Structures are given as C-alpha cells and as structure tokens.
Fold:
Amino acid sequence: MTDAINTNRLRIFTLLAVLALLPGCATLDKDECLVADWRLIGYQDGVAGKSSAALGTYRKDCAKHAVVPDLDSYQAGRAEGLLEYCKADNGYRLGSSGRGFSTVCPSHLESDFRAAYDRGREIYLARSAVKNTRARIYQHQQDLQDLEADKGAKLAELIADGLRAEQRVLILYEISELEQEMHSVEDEIDVLEYDLSSQQAHLDSLTQHALR
Structure:
C-alpha cells in the first residue's frame, strides 16, 4: 500500500514538473482533437491551475475539425486536478519560488492553500532581501577597492620627482577627497552589514518555523 502511494506521489510530482515547462495557453491540433482524452486534459489543466476558460480555446481548436469537447469529462478531470494544485504543499512551493498563483481553488481548499502560499511568499521575500543586501555589500566592497587603488596611485604621484609645490597641494587635496569617500563607503557597508544580520535572522526564523 505504501509503495503504491509513493508511486502515485512520484507520478504527480513528475506531472507538475512537466506542466511547469508547458506554455501557458495550450492549443490542440487536428490529431489531438480526434483522439483527445478530455478527462486527462481536464486533469492536466487542473494540476496546472488553469481556469475553465481553457476549454473555450479547445472548443475553437477542435471546431475546425468537427470535434466537440466532452464537457462533463473535462470538468470531472479538472476537478480532480485542482485537488492536487490546491494542496497546501503546492501553495507553499509556488510562494517560496516567487511565482504567482491562480484563483481556481474550491472554497474548502482555498484558505489552507492561500495561507501556505503566503508563508512561502514571505520566505521568498526574506530570501530576496538577504540576496539583494549581500549584492549591495559586495558592490560597495568593490567600490572601496577601486578607491584604495586610486589613493595608491595618487600617493605614487605625490612622491614623484619634479613636482611643483602647487601640484603636490592639489594631489594632497585629491587624496583627502578619496579618503572621505572611502569613509563614506565604509559607513554604508557597516549599515548594510547590520541590515544583513537582521534580515538573515528573520529568514532563519521563517525557515525554521516552516520546517516544524
């Protein structure tokens, strides 16, 4: 019994992965219309979180070939698929990956699905904040290295032979400006590192709570 359940879960997971790669608006050609399994098509649309409006597209496609979709079979299959799409685990997966969701869930599943989605979305936003702050710190560190290189070049100029007094004064002024800019960047890095510490702690807290 357990093996059968695990096999079924694996099939559903595989189907979800495949559907994630399919285009958002499906169309059917002549051969597909002629041999269509409308219950399966409905199930796939349900698992993908598609609205029932997709059937209208199929109607138009198949009308060209004198084929009428089996509405009852499609709706039954889609209802089964929505039971998979609207699971809380899937809502969390969508939210934590930064994806949107379709408002297609039956009322008795909507609350848990949306709550799980919101938890996942919160983790996604927290993770994004950490990533962005780290990127800003890295960029500031690169800027600081560039400023240090500029200062080194100015110091080398300062001790060069043949400089007039006014030239040395100008170089000293430029070095002073570089040092002020370096201090400013260092202060910004300190602030960002403080922000990063708080953001990382928030993300860790959310992640630990999600694992419970």
Summary: The chain has a mean pLDDT of 89. Residues 83 and 161 are 81 Å apart (CA to CA).
